[in-house]
Design brief:
Layout lengths: L1 H37 L6 H11 L4 H25 L6 H39 L2 H7 L4 H39 L4 H11 L2 H27 L10 H29 L2
Helix pairs in contact: 1-6, 1-8, 2-6, 3-4, 3-6, 4-6, 4-7, 4-8, 4-9, 6-8, 8-9
């Protein structure tokens, strides 16, 4: 009997954890569908513009810095490897495709998650534990329409724009490192970028950025909205735990869906 119990206990734990994950994923999916439906309600435009500024404009400087140095590092490392193989002429192809297809959407999404996603989770979480969301419901104001839908709509607008900026600035950073600093041929660099980056690559980047926008917006708002239901803390601790969980869960889901989308669009 003890032997069977020792075997069954890990399986029971695994099953319980799996059911918990599936339950939360289902709840997030319903949360997302409700928020998407409420995006098109009246008087949402002004609130969406406010969130665009908070999520997008305030993250622009971070995106510019990260994309510049990502492109420079990628160009520098790629130059040395390609030069040793006698293929430094394809530097533009390697840098541009790496950024457009992979690094641009993923890194920009993770950066926005760390700066804006955590702020969304914390702000909504504070409103939950201070009973401000309950006050909205008492005043017959739908919190989903008033708080969640504008943030989700702003994410859907901002993520593709930030990804495009990341790609362009990163390619210029690779140009600076590979051609200006390492004296590679600048004409060949941009020729390779132009000839090898096609609409399929841009479409993949766009699809990834939209998927990541849905992930970050949904997870961050969901974690803050239901911060009071967490069993690992109450009050300020609940906000702290919800914010941490939102960032970690978003980053994990970004990488998971990045693999799924890449494998489907290969």
């Amino acid at each position: 009997m003890a032997y069977l119990k020792a075997i069954a206990t890990p399986l029971i734990t695994l099953g319980s954890v799996s059911l918990g994950v599936l339950r939360e994923m289902g709840a997030m999916s319903i949360f997302l569908l409700i928020a998407l439906r409420k995006i098109f309600f009246r008087k949402q435009l002004r609130k969406i513009f406010i969130q665009i500024r908070l999520i997008g404009a305030d993250s622009l400087f971070l995106i510019l810095i990260i994309s510049t140095f990502t492109g420079m590092v990628l160009g520098l490392q790629s130059y040395f490897v390609l030069r040793s193989l006698g293929s430094d002429g394809v530097l533009g192809t390697l840098v541009s495709l790496s950024l457009v297809r992979e690094l641009g959407p993923v890194l920009s999404a993770i950066m926005i998650t760390g700066r804006a996603g955590s702020a969304m989770a914390a702000e909504i979480g504070v409103m939950r534990i201070s009973e401000q969301l309950d006050a909205l419901e008492v005043m017959d104001i739908d919190p989903m329409s008033f708080l969640i839908a504008p943030r989700l709509a702003a994410c859907l607008i901002i993520f593709p724009l930030m990804t495009a900026i990341f790609d362009i600035v990163g390619i210029l950073g690779g140009f600076i490192a590979g051609t200006v600093i390492m004296d590679s041929n600048s004409g060949i660099y941009f020729f390779r970028v132009q000839s090898h980056v096609g609409m399929d690559d841009v479409l993949m980047s766009l699809i990834k950025s939209i998927a990541f926008a849905l992930i970050v917006g949904t997870v961050s708002c969901y974690k803050g909205f239901f911060a009071h239901l967490r069993e690992d803390g109450a009050g300020p601790a609940a906000v702290n735990n919800a914010t941490t969980s939102a960032v970690v869960s978003s980053c994990i889901l970004i990488l998971m869906f990045d693999y799924v989308i890449t494998s489907l669009m290969k």
